[in-house]
Amino acid sequence: MRAIGLLASAAFALPTPCPAAQDRAPDASITGGRTRPSGWHARADKNKPLDDAMIVRKGDGMHVTLGPAVVLWRDVHRASGNYRVVATFTQNANPRHPEGYGLFIGGSHLADAQNRYTYFLVRGDGKFLVKRRITGDSTAEVTNGWTDSDAVATADSAGKATNELGILVRKGKVSFQVNGKEVFSAKAADLDAQGMVGYRVNHTLDVQLGALGIRKL
Predict the structure, then answer these.
(1) Strand, helix or coil at 78?
(2) What are phi and psi of 65, to 5 degrees?
(3) 4-63 tens-digit pLDDT
(4) Bridge pairing between strands 127-135 and 116-123
(5) pTM, whole model, 2 decimals?
(6) In CATH, what number does 17-216 get?
């Protein structure tokens, strides 16, 4: 807890919000929402409307400003067998509370209630997360929650941070990499690793997404 002052010789503190309370934080309202580049699909968690999701082309990638959390994909972005997917992400501003952005692999039924995929995120406090969306809105942890790593670039006082995320699927193993360093690995058989690949960005974030690189090995 963080002490905020003294009154009548007693120290008072504000409790740190628990993760469940953070998950219930409201989505931001975004001016200019419901936009996305031609050829790209988007789905918000719990199939929320995309009125507060602004997704526009910028440079060789896209700039996203979000109310709800979304996954983004193109029909041509499929990967199977041995492959590597990589992209660079720049968080542009401090979110209301720590939230993650990154990649997903092994996507199926992304546009409907049976959507499944494995996702790999980092966030501005230097932590990473690997989870699976297993049916609709149900998820299963792969890492033991958010995990510290010195490979993850932390955000500066303005909330800005740039990280390159890569996922390598080869010989039955999945390696999750941040800025060229492996931070976690797992058996491919324990994950969704074959199918659609794309981006996942959690709610209330402002992030520049670099071009998605997919290389067959």
Answers:
(1) strand
(2) -125, 115
(3) 343 333 333 333 344 444 445 678 787 777 888 999 999 999 999 999 999 999 999 999
(4) antiparallel
(5) 0.87
(6) 2.60.120.560
